[in-house]
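Q: What would this chain look like folded?
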Amino acid sequence: MVNEVNLALYLICHHGHWDDFIRDAEIIQRVSLEKGVPITYFFSGLQLEKMAEQRGAIHNARWCDVIGGMQGGRFVNPRSGYHHAHLSEIGIMPYSHIPLVQPWGRFIQAEYFDGILRDQIRWSKGVVERHYQKTPVTIHPPDGVYSPSAAKMLREGGLDTVVVSGEFLGSDQHAKGILYWASGLRHIVRTNDIQLPSPGFWDAKVFLDAVEEYGHRNNIGFVVVGCDSNELYGMREVSLHDGVARLCCIGDEAYRRCGRIKLVNCNAVAHGNLHSTDLEKFWGGWDDVRSMIGDGSLNFLDEGKNWEVGHVAYLIGERFRQGWDGQVIQEAKECLWRAADMACRNKHYAGALEAHYQGNIKRARHLLQG
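A: My prediction, written as structure tokens:
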């Protein structure tokens, strides 16, 4: 039986509008910079870059240099030896919010990793290093879309850890507290059984009671809970004020428990959990793709659009091998990156992003037809 439970909270902040940026900035300011509650924030490289470009405007709106705060000592930088468990962390997603694997595309995964994804990971890391003076080591798959086949490329890209979702483990709750290995990459598991935005958790005491009981009942010392940041400012009928207050109160309540439950970042979970095993023992097929949506399946994806993205990725590989002009291939890639955003393939957002998707995918196909 575990004596203490370590809780890692994370937020996915991959949104693309000023209103989202400023709300995310307020959470960072109020929760991590002022209150000191450790949160791991996952950003697409695109959002990180836009926030850095708008540093002055965010400063004026919040009366706080949020970007400067993220550069400072409230956020860890493990690669430089600054890896305090109880500080916040900047995690990444691909620059354009594309998936870490191509769903239903096991026969083109090698081309997808080398030709499409590798640059996206490098750019996201580069944005953090240039603008935030940190080297990120943790990644989150957009919408949780992942398979172990991506592990080798992510590890070679300089990452240590990926957060995968726990739906694939079903009711085996003990298994959701284990650290998994694949190709040298650490895998920590989001606990889908506890949802931070749930109306039942408006009281921090109730939330931490649930986390503590979950850890003791399942004999796991590390519990990872996460959600989209906009679920704490409107998506689940939770106002921004209430979302910030909920996170701050969790920090206060954890402190009152005198060490029975500790708040840590995702990097600390990956390096502090001594219970580990090979991912393939639980995951199944090396190319099986899971998600964090619904039951963990891919039912939320538009199969037609997904096939079009996969076909263009295949054509890019073919044209490269045929010796086509590099500038043409690069332009086609840039169109594909914009079209391959997970939001463009999500059936629920199809209408709002249809013109964006069609314009980019058609341009990419036109360039590659010759």
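The first strand starts at residue 5 and ends at 12.
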